[in-house]
Amino acid sequence: MKEYRSLSDTRWDCKYHVVFIPKRRMKLIFGKVRKHIGEVLRDLANQKESAIVEGHLMLDHIHMCISIPSKNSVSHVVGFIKGKSAIAIARQLGRGRNLTGESFWARGYFVSTVGLDEEMVRAYIRDQEKEDERYDQLKLGM
Fold this sequence. Notes:
two-stranded antiparallel ribbon; globular; Alpha-Beta Plaits
């Protein structure tokens, strides 16, 4: 049976598959950033009464399945997470790397509703890195 979450007057189950990238798709999500960013993203989601159900960090993009209350818009929550995490990353890396909070993430993002295919989306997010490696190997064979 599906577990629904509740607000004072609403029962809901709204999950979204969200993908966003660093500016110019630079491969910046490694080392100190990779260790720190997962915790930052989860904390920021919690501040908006949301929860990251599944997530995976790639070198040049982030996949996550996020549960957002029906009272909040997806764009508001994702914008908040991207903005505040960019500031946290800039503070952690310092000014020497020419990363300011305003210029870490690219402007847009991808979002899709999860609906009844939640397990399939969560498996896709978990196995994304393996699929990318397999695809790269196929391209090398051409």
